[in-house]
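Hi all, long-time lurker, first post. I run a small reading group and we've been trying to get comfortable going from sequence to structure in the token notation. Rather than ask abstract questions, I figured I'd post a concrete chain and ask someone more experienced to write out its structure so we can walk through it together at our next meeting. Sequence below, copied exactly:
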Amino acid sequence: MIRFAVRVLVVLFLATAIARAEEPKYQPHYLKPDAIDVVALLPDPPADDSAEHREELNLLLKLQQDRTAADVARCTEEEDHFSVFEFADVLGPNFSAETCPKTAAFFKRTLQPDVAYFNKLAKNHWNRPRPANDPRIQALFVEKDGSYPSGHSIRATVFGEMLAALVPQDREKLIARSQQIGWDREIAGVHFASDIYAGRILGKALANALLANAEIKAQLEALRPEITQALASQVK
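-- Answer (accepted) --
Happy to help. Here is the structure in token form:
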């Protein structure tokens, strides 16, 4: 009887540990956990034995063959130091953590829990293997979490939409830059095309939900003077 009870406790302990391991590290702060049904929102990624998956691999092999030293440098920067200031390519060199400290804190800490939570929910559900599972793919970086959807694509889309709300005159360029960040993950060989597209869908849904939140809108408005001053003090 005692042995049986011990076994039951062990099973319960392991089940709890597994469940906790599958939970996202972050919990959303501004959005409710069920604010976005990621499984209903996103299509399933292509099956490994599908023609579409083979074409995605062929595209990665072509990008791998054609990538330049400049591509590698840009991809490495976005991998090692990814932040909202990747958009300085659009807004100018004075858009930086030094000149915009409140902006840096907002995008690094305030938005992180919500974006990370829904990203992880999706990755845990599909758990798609990374492209480097194919030995022909020479990825620039080692990534251990699921491939679908792309976290960089999600965050870049959210950041681009948030910045576009503050600098609407540059919206087209900001969205193009966010899309390039996703595309660079394909050049780096760490994501499939469908991972990037799914990241854009989820990122857009997250941005829409966050921009509808009164607290987020107020915080964005509080950032406007800092960003406006930084952009006004330079010639783009």
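A couple of things your group might point at:
Residues 28-232 form a domain with the Vanadium-containing Chloroperoxidase; domain 1 fold (CATH 1.20.144.10).
The CA atoms of residues 59 and 193 lie 8 Å apart.
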